[in-house]
Design brief:
Length: 231
């Protein structure tokens, strides 16, 4: 039996109160195993980001069960959610880099949360990760000195530098050129296939659908089909 990194059962989610209450997710069931790359597609407004943020513990689970790395997220304490978030690499739709920190310092930020590395070691790891995403020559640049694609790659490096077991990414390749996309895809594939990490990626990008073991589709808050492929 494969180990599940994510196990979602009967999740519903609502926004707003009273007569404005609107259901955004309906009866979501989904499991993702270790080493698996799953791509989540679907039109804008269908609920993809909502689902991803629930899995990451960034939003409160209202109904149903979400188990991530063997921990239940539903009704988990803030302390537990904080701990869980440190084990997840999350790449936001907008890169969210800190403008007054260099690329290297932005990447080091996630290592600081872990708290037990020397500055020198953090620096070394951040720069090695930036090199993997092809930004060795940009480590001391500030975000506004970088192109959109380069900023997005820094965001990737920041999410991956802690070597998380689970990587969640929200439309991460939208602003990447072909070379950057290939670099990111190869890095993610290596993490999944050689290191057993699980990856859930939201994308509309036809260029990267091929990397998926499985593609799941969301429409109006429902997961409507699963295209299973075996490689
Ligand atoms: P997607 O990522 O697929 O574009 P979202 O998960 O962002 O979709 O949104 C799903 C639905 O939930 C949309 O109808 C959106 O308007 C609504 N929604 C998302 N976030 C909020 C929020 N913070 N408050 C109210 N409604 C929201
Ligand atoms: Mg979205």
């Amino acid at each position: 039996m494969l180990e599940s990194t994510i196990s979602i059962q009967y999740v519903n989610h609502y926004f707003g109160k009273g007569s404005l209450r609107k259901q955004a997710l309906f009866d979501i069931n989904l499991s993702i195993h270790s080493g698996e790359i799953v791509i989540l597609t679907g039109p804008s407004g269908s609920g993809k980001t909502t689902l991803l943020s629930l899995i990451a513990g960034l939003r409160t689970v209202q109904e149903g069960s979400i188990k991530v790395l063997d921990r239940e997220v539903y009704r988990a304490s803030n302390q537990k959610l904080l701990k869980l978030r440190r084990q997840i690499g999350y790449v936001f739709q907008k890169h969210n880099l800190v403008p007054f920190l260099t690329a290297s310092q932005n990447v080091q930020m996630t290592l600081e949360l872990g708290g037990n590395l020397s500055r020198k070691e953090m620096c070394h790891r951040a720069e090695a990760m930036l090199e993997v995403v092809g930004l060795k020559h940009r480590i001391n640049y500030f975000p506004d000195q970088l192109s959109e694609g380069q900023k997005q790659r820094v965001a990737f490096a920041r999410a991956l530098v802690t070597q998380p077991q689970l990587i969640l990414a929200d439309e991460p390749t939208a602003s990447l050129d072909k070379n950057s996309t290939n670099t990111v895809v190869e890095t993610l594939k290596d993490l999944a296939k050689n290191q057993g990490r699980s990856i859930l990626l939201i994308t509309h990008d036809n260029r990267i659908l091929d990397m998926a073991d499985r593609i799941v589709h969301m429409e109006d808050g429902h997961l409507i089909n699963e295209t299973k492929r075996y490689i």
